[in-house]
TrEMBL record:
N-terminal signal peptide: 1-24
Provenance organism: Acidobacterium capsulatum (strain ATCC 51196 / DSM 11244 / BCRC 80197 / JCM 7670 / NBRC 15755 / NCIMB 13165 / 161)
Organism superkingdom: Bacteria
Protein name per the record: DUF302 domain-containing protein
Keyword Signal assigned: yes
Length: 152
């Protein structure tokens, strides 16, 4: 009887652990581009401004990693809107951990280019604040639109 109970607990804990991992992983969006790396970058910058956001920062991770001997195409963009940021930061300054949003464009080992980002709502819902969650969902839609425009 004890063995069956222990087995049931192990199965339940394993199931719960894997279901939590699936939820955490589902917030990452990865869209394959129909364009090459440089074209995707160009389209991403244009789509960002067309969606009312701006590139607030840029990290050429491929260049930085080349110093270690790893050669890859990969650039991260911090995108946001100062007016939306002001609303978020006025509710809780800790949103700075996630805002501005980060979009990563990279060339995979298969030679294809991808646009990837974490849904702002998945990150910002942790604040348990309806105002922050509402704005995060709006940002989700904007990032979805940017990724689609940059890749198609």
């Amino acid at each position: 009887m004890k063995r069956k109970l222990l087995m049931l607990i192990v199965v339940a804990a394993t199931t719960l652990a894997f279901s939590g991992m699936a939820v955490a992983q589902s917030s990452i969006v990865k869209v394959e581009s129909q364009h090459n790396f440089n074209q995707t970058i160009s389209k991403l910058k244009s789509a960002t401004s067309q969606n009312g956001l701006m590139v607030m920062g840029h990290i050429n991770q491929g260049h930085v990693l080349s110093m270690t001997g790893l050669h890859m195409n990969g650039e991260a963009f911090l995108v946001g809107n100062p007016n939306v940021g002001k609303k978020l930061f006025s509710v809780d300054h800790a949103v700075g951990l996630f805002i501005p949003a980060r979009i990563f464009v990279y060339q995979g080992k298969n030679g294809r280019t991808y646009v990837s980002y974490d849904r702002p709502s998945a990150e910002l819902d942790q604040f348990n604040n309806p105002k922050i969650s509402m704005m995060a969902k709006m940002l989700d839609k904007k990032l979805d639109s940017i990724a689609q425009s940059a890749t198609h």
